Protein 1
Amino acid sequence: MFLESLENMTFRKFVSILLLGLPLAGGAGCKRPNLPNAVKEVPSTEAPAAVQAEAPAPVPPPPPPKVRQADTKGSVIVLCYHRFEDRPKDSMAVTPAAFESEMKALGEHGFSVISMQDFLAWRRGEKSIPEKACLITIDDGYRSGHDVAWPILKKFGYPFTMFIYTAFVKGGALAGGASLSWQELAEMRDAGVDIQSHTVNHQNLRIKKGKYQSQFPSYEEWLRNETAGSKRLLESQLGISVQALAYPYGVHSDQIRTAAMEAGYEAAFTTYGQRLTFHSPADQLGRYAIESNKPKIFTDALAMIGGGGGMVETSASSGAAAAAVTGQLAAVSMLTVPGEGETVRNLKPAIKANLATMGNVEPGTVEIRVSGVGAVPVKYDPGTRLAEGTLMQPLKDRQVTVLLSAQVNGRRVETRWNFICDAIPAPPGALPAPTPAPGAGKAPVHPAPAPAAPAPAPAVAPRASSQPAVPPPAPVPGSTPAPGVPPSAPAPDAGGAPSSPAASAEPAVSGGVLR
């Protein structure tokens, strides 16, 4: 019994000692050994395959941008006014009542009056315009444009352009009591009136030896000052961009047109009334110069046929012969093939024109030139008044200009029109030019004693005689040179102030029909 108790005590002590020793053994250093090449275990951050998001589908590339087509369907007339007086002193002034009546007539005849900026944007192919559009322009910078015409135009909501010759602005060498000031022009600018250039001195740009040109080393320097100098002065005084030029008296030549384009103008206007199309040359855009004693000019404008005047010098003009070979363009509604703005696919199309509206054409003097080709053989029938040119070589350019000239009553008269040859691809990056809508660029033809009735035809611009110049002020420095130009000196204006040329009488239409 004693031995049994002793064994039980011994067993219990052993168990107690064993239990007390376990914690000591755990803290004494039975650690897991650190192996030098052991790799730490990094917990995985990957989501289970079941919850991983699916990869997004590839996004298709955007469609290529659409190429904007130039809208060639519109047509435009441009009206040119000067002064507004209750009792007009000359034909360049119209009464306020007559002006308001004419503005009302525009709407009644379906015209939409557009701004110069809309016109230029259309010409650049950036926007469309109505098919019967009208630009209203007021030349020189007379106060009556501000005080009389502007309120009437506000009444109709019509935008308009002021063509300013800078020497006539208050403080300028040619300014007078009827001149606007720079502050008044700024007021008009802030109200949305468009302001463009009418040169510095409003002098006939063809005159090479004017008495006010002596301060310039050459005619070319003076011409640069008149074109580029006036543009810079208007831009610096008014903080605007000047993009259009109106030739004084409508007078222009190859050299003058070149100087205008080199000066940075997008458009240059003369004073032979015509329907303007998308393809009308940018450097000779015709305007109807409205005169109080010639109501037919406004009537012609509403009909989009010929009216007004303006001088153009042909390549044949030179020296003392300039006056003999410079004349007005035909009174329009001339029938042509191809028509103005038409698209053809033949590299050798027939070139035809009915010259009935040109007047008494002298047989044997008719010439036809085609851009990129040159002069072509011409047949002219005095009985039918039909002139036909034959292309001996194919056309070279997609955009084609035809120049037709003839001797009429001892004076050289020239007209031109444009068409597109679709057989020649457009240059890379060029806007495609669709075929014009029916009737675009065409004008009605007056009755003629021909066996068949004429079809509608494109309007072609008339050009007429010029009028006097006015003395210049001090030059505005800097511009771009231009080549020489033959002289022509019209007589000075009795009043000493500039005015636009009177429109020449239009010849009666007679002759045949294009076949």
Protein 2
Amino acid sequence: MNYRTLMDNINVLFWNLKDEFTVTMANRTLANFFGREQQFYNMKNMDCNHLTSGEIELIFADNQAVFREKKKVSLEKWISDSTGKLKLLSITKTPKLNKNGEVASVFCTAIDITEKASLKKALDITIDNLSASEKFFNLNFQEASNGILLSDKNGRMILFNEALCEILQYPMEELIKINLFDITHQEDLPKSKYLRNMLVNNRIKKFKMEQRLLTGNGNYIWVNMSSRLANGGHAEFIISYIEDIGERKSAEETIKEQQAEIESKRVELEFNKLKNKFFANLSHEFRTPLNLIFATLHLMESNLDRNKEHVPYEKMKSYINIIRQNSYRLLRLVHNLIDLTKMDINDYHLNLKKCDIVSLVKQIIEPVKSYMEENNREFIYNNQLEKREIICDPVNIERIILNLLSNAIKFTRVGDQIILSLREEKEEIIISVRDTGIGIKKDKLDLIFEEFRQVDESFSRGSEGTGLGLPITKYLVELHGGTITVESKYGEGSEFIVRLPIKRDDSVFTEESPAGKIEDLTNKVDMEFSDIYCG
């Protein structure tokens, strides 16, 4: 390898001077530093207009002292490279003398020491921090129990103590090669970068953050990192105090799990309490109509025994009505229990078809009017539509409306109003049942659609119930793609609002269910209102 080739392959800027103002040779490293072709510098004179100020400062400045004093010159200068970045160069210019003691030429070298200078500065700052910090004034850097880290704004680790190595389970020679951002958990990284950026831009003075760091064994640990700018406010460097909080986090997670378990058991106990109450109420619901049926049958037998020849017609008719009403009540209860079981396993299906909702509602409410009169309620029907076809299950729409009207009768008093409204809003059919009854307490509004709930258990009303009606109604409304909401003011009344979509996919149609089922042969109004006693 010849001399020129050797000079071109060293990572040192090299050039040779003939005199103070003339370059005879420059290596490839120097040419690359300034973004030049290598031959550019051959016999280049300081007076050349094509040289940059950086080139003149590096190559020709201080030449006079070397040639005149015939002494080696060593100095450091900040010079901009071809990209405009400032680099700290360690420059040496060595004169070569001839036999007469005159300078024949000068060999010049420059080495980039920017990185070393940065490390030196960081080390000086760290020492300043550790001695100046009140918190660590009497603390030996290497003997600190918590980790101490000096890093730059880009997460490069510059200096740390042995405690941090132990916390992160890395040897010191490996940890120095790792960027802090590379071992920060991905969920914590955005916040960490954001806070560090706020810090270096002097928008905050310090910050604390709990985050996860990847250890040498491949596991993440929780640490509490307290960070601030290095002493003197150097924006390039951040000093952090790192505490291992893995045990505390583990304890917190254990507490959370225990709390969740306690809450789960509380909910389970509450549910069991409701369920037990429901079944206690259910036994009453079965027993009461059965007792009435047996008592009525006993009265009928007694009357027949006393009046074998003259059967009292009116009494017998009254007895038969009691048996019918309580039979409907039992039938309704059985239907609700069966349907609720199907709904719980998503095995309840609609029989959808196109239907004029105006005509359907009119048919539903016609037999209701007599019940309203018998119970001394003022019933008002407010229809704002002429004709409107929707896709629905008519049988279950009837069930929804009758359930809401039945509910309104139960929670109103003699003389109260019950208003059924039908209107259209934004591609939805609105069915509203409003009353001027007792209303619902605010803290009970969220409970009324839950299974087994009876909102007003203390109110003395002429009706019975299991608390299944409204949950079933809500399920049927949602099965139609609609919603049901309630608005109420305690002591003034309530309003239940059903919203049904007008547009539905025709592909959801199913065949009508065959006739002959018991619900097709009985009076729906009698069954839905069977737990209301006239009064």
Protein 3
Amino acid sequence: MKKSLLALLFLVLLLQVPSTSFAVDLIPQDTIALHIGSPLILSDNNMKALDSENPDVVPIIHKERTLVPLRAISEHFGAVVSYDPIQREALIELNGEMYYFPIDKNHYRIEKSGVAAKTVYYDTEALIVENRTMVPLRLISEEILGKNVGYDDKVITIGNGPVDLNKETVAALKTKIGQVLKITSMEELEKIIADITPEYPDDKFIGLEPSPSPEAPAESPAESPALPTEEADRSNDFSSTNEQVEGVNEADIVKTDGRFIYVALGKSVKIYDSNNGNPILTDEITLDVDETTGQYVVLSELYIADGRLVILGSRNGFDNWIRPIPEPTLDAPDALIMPRYPNKSYTYLAVYDIDNNGKKSLIKEFEIEGSLLSSRKKDDTLYLVVNKYFNYYIMDGNVEIPTYKDSTISDEYRTLPVDRIMYHPGRLAQNYLIVAAVDIRNETTPSSINAFLGSGSLVYMSNEALYVAGNDYSSFFGNITNIAKFNVDGLKVGFAGGGMVEGSILNQFSMDEFDGNLRVATTNWQMESSNALYVLDTNLNPLGKVEHLAPGERIFSVRFMGDKGYIVTFRQVDPLFVFDLSNPSAPKVIGELKVPGFSNYLHPINENVLLGIGQNVDEITGIQSGIKLSTFDVSDGGKPKEIANLVLGDSGSYAEVLNNHKALMLNPTRDMIAFDATLRKETGDYQSTYFYGAMILEVSQTGEIKLLKQIPTDGLYGSVVKRVLYIDDVLYYILDENIKTYDMDTFVEIN
């Protein structure tokens, strides 16, 4: 079976329905549509969460009856809902009448002023599912709310009048609100996976037994103690990680909070007191290899927030780890054969409290099976996006379900409950995509985990939503990019829809959310390459597009700034295209500038000046000839102009910032930027010299570029961790475990 490269909850049926159909109302404005197992609802012909406060709520089948959330349905049609936890009763107030639904009972009672109470019996009972009262669909919709119910092939409509649920309407509704469905039982999951899993009869492995779902704490978790503060010890001016979206934090290998410097070295994380340019090691975090399993943790990325240090890493195992050989028995001769041990890998997260002396104390740990795709932090919630691929050699008919460990629940690994898994009925995937949310502030709050049969390759996050995208070259539609949207609010993560665009995405900067719409830039590799910009609405339906841009070239960098967009393509010269996106239904190119070379990364200096960092290229030979910094005047959108440029080194020069925006240090107060680089300089007769070190530059608000200083590594060019940061007036050049410090006014070395 050919393995799909990406099958994340994607809207495959979208291309089976003409795009103009989305402009037509599928159901009347006074009607809502639901789907069994789906967390989505169609209201006013827009997709929304069925329960905005609880994205895990879906309509279910119980005792051959469809149950729906009492609160969500009642409140949508104007009723007032409350719940009495003592009596365990849900109350609906509507038109002067009160309807009481006792939990786990097969009746409800009606009370009205001046009228005797009436008890009504029905053939099932009210249930609590996902902390919501679930009641029979027709009972609440028809008998209490007085609405009309339609039902066909798991599609439900509730409104003032009947809806013609013909074949086309049902298919269109499934395309919208039936994109992903919750798995309800192990049997259902087994059937789905059996349909997509090849057989390997000679490979056997007995996996972990499923564990119960994490239980909510019996009482509200205690608040974390107030963090010690010594504002006098902390700087008011220090560098932060260069991030795409303001308010959405990204992980990096080095962080500072204005006093302490944190460095992730793989084998450990070191904490230094910056000490006015004379760093002092205050603590170190290391994790030992497990002597039994041979597993070890690589500590790779960091977050820092108000006294909390978050470490991300991966737990893996040595393939050749020596384990005890089992004792053979007469009735089990096969025991002489060394058993197969699955080499599972986990994404690892640890939260530490850092005191005023730079000393650590572990707060919580979390692990989820799979490889980390990316992460983001918003306020006190950290989001992990993880890919977990099926291991066919150890499945042999057994259902492989991701395992996790949450120290707020247990020190043991647990199997993710099946009701935390969703799937795309139109496209089954051979892997899991997992989205986990971790509270880094509260010490006792469990993490939330949702898994989907699918995978992703790129992550973008706005302040309201998380987008996971990936290129799918196996689709018969051609080269496409699938996009899944998740609404995020603290620990609440809910699938909000899926869409697709033609072409492939370069990196996270190829996506941007503005005024609820998603802008996406792609390169299509079908036949001759061409490029495009697409605008999708809040439901990821197509709004506008510009296609067939720069045929024969590909996108090298993208930046969106408000209602403007900037795309750099390249073949021999660097065309910078400027887009007017003020009308999302009709985006258009309003300007173009061609200069030698190309920009791998675009950074706004201000609303009128754009900085490009890339490579210089000989216009005739096409040979790359050094790291090029260019500034562009984009004040007149239709007429972009190059203000200045500076080329560092010759062919063979390289800097991490060309492929990683987080390698760029920004000091807006001084108009300063800095990054580590390797500069090759040709000296003639096929000879060359190399300079290894940090480039310190000034990029003014008007676009002038000036090289201020080149700081050498002094033989430490082989370092893995290379970052430049500043605290107050001191520049820190981190090279693994070595920190070189300089006065930012004179660039005289301090230590």
